Amino acid sequence: MATAPYNYSYIFKYIIIGDMGVGKSCLLHQFTEKKFMADCPHTIGVEFGTRIMEVSGQKIKLQIWDTAGQERFRAVTRSYYRGAAGALMVYDITRRSTYNHLSSWLTDARNLTNPNTVIILIGNKADLEAQRDVTYDEAKQFAEENGLLFLEASAKTGENVEDAFLEAAKKIYQNIQDGSLDLNAAESGVQHKPSAPQGGRLTSEPTPQREGCGC
Amino acid sequence: MKSSVSVCTTPLNGRHDRDSRRNRKVADITNALSVSPVDVAALRRMAISEGGLLTDEIRCQVWPRLLNVPSHVLEQEPVERENNKDYNQVLLDVQRSLRRFPPGMPDEQREGLQEELIDIILRVLKNNPQLHYYQGYHDIVVTFLLVLGERLATALVEKLSTHHLRDFMDPTMDNTKHILNYLMPIIERVNPEVHDFMQQAEVGTIFALSWLITWFGHVLSDFRHVVRLYDFFLACHPLMPIYFAAVIVLYREEEVLECECDMAMVHHLLSQIPQDLPYETLISRAGDLFVQFPPSELAREAATQESTAASTFTDFGLASTQQRPDSVLRRRRRQKQAALESSGAAGPSAVAVAGPSVARRFVRLAVMGLTVALGAAAFAVVNTALEWAPKLDLFP
């Protein structure tokens, strides 16, 4: 857990969304712990992880919200979308239904985040080539049509997991550099951390209870 | 026999005391079971008081009594899995529930139990089409399966699903969210400072969602702790798990207040439940809090919390049944107004502003005699359940 003075210059908020059992929590675990969690249980509500990574020479803290995939939990997970700078939208390359549901996830993500939110499509379980049910080209085309970044990855082998988080972070950082992402906007999902320690609460956090899931 | 009682002063005397207390309790439970009619009130007290029901053998006899389920139930037909709307989802969740089985259990045995787990869930859902499966439900069912075996577990889970868990099994999560709304008012009553800090951090209550809807089965790794809590919850009002959740937060007061006042940080801290909690102490505290601040007293507040959010019609309906000339509501509005005016400058200054009122509102928790409080908690089950929620007409 970070304490002031900060050893990173930005916080990027990420969300991970997608159907049940596509491996959202495993991707997060692989990314934060560099390990595959074979007996990863289902997620209830939201879980949370962080990691500091270097992007274009800057230390950036990723603050990642991993959401439950079951439809009924969307009522509570939706409020965590707000103010996300990046979204990992995950499907399982061996289960076509999880790919078919992407448009619904994408609609949610678009409606509940801001126009600058970087969305990356992740085809997980790429190690299970023999059971592939969705081709790379097809998903690539879907991503292009919808302006998404795209990667196939494997939480099991770790292939492309690092890159999935990194590619989105690069894009977000690029948006900051070229000024298309306004850091002062309330829901940019990015906090600049000047080197001087700064107390108090953060202003660009989501406030789930205002949306109905809180106390 | 395993024991979860851990405190003893001198090794020999302590152990002696503990053994004799335990023996006495076993005798009391046996007595309560053998009289006719069975002394359910006594069994409730045993399930709540220190150590709970002690062993799984005793649980097999007492849990059915607590839920008013006959202990001899008929074997049921297996449920057809083809074309079952819930099967795929249940299968997916059960397949990745390996952690919920005792470590070291042979794969074959575990796989057999997983099949039974699927059958129980599908059977209950089929018999009760009004119930909707949620992820986490199987965390509860597996606990019953491991203690009671398939047949008895089915009967108890069915009863529980139509009573204690009923609100979680609605088509939507509105009622679940409503129950979570009890958390902050309880915390506020006991420790306004922690309450205000959490409000300031805007952490919400979702960190407690998995605790509530799995009765902590999803988050505690030691099965003995899980069943001890189940003893307690089965003997109490359906809202007791939310009191227990509040007690955990309150127990971690120092950690919470030392945490960076930031939504993500506080959520992260609270959602990582410590595995070495002093369960017996926390159980008796939760019982105390229930008696001091019964759900009926908190209901209006829980409902007004919702009103700042996208309130649903159901919640509104629930709230309106509870409404009286409402000074609490007005007071809260004034406070909110004042906070709003004073927080114009910046976030951190609001902390200072909140300071004095925190001190004034601090209520010291009265220490009640354990037995009295727990007896009353058990008694309160009968008295208050009907007051607060239309769905929870306990055990006809």
TrEMBL record, chain A:
Alphabetical list of InterPro entries matching this protein = P-loop_NTPase (IPR027417), Rab14 (IPR030702), Rab_GTPases_membrane_traffic (IPR050209), Small_GTP-bd (IPR005225), Small_GTPase (IPR001806)
What topology does the record note for this protein and the membrane?
A: Lipid-anchor
EC class, as a word, reads: hydrolase
Q: Does the keyword ATP-binding apply?
A: no
GO MF: G protein activity; GTP binding
What is one cellular component GO term in this UniProt entry?
early endosome membrane
Tell me which Gene Ontology terms the entry assigns under biological process: defense response to bacterium; endocytic recycling; Golgi to endosome transport; phagosome maturation; protein transport
Q: Where is this region: Disordered?
A: 188-215
Protein name as it appears in the record: Ras-related protein Rab-14
- Gene source species: Gadus morhua
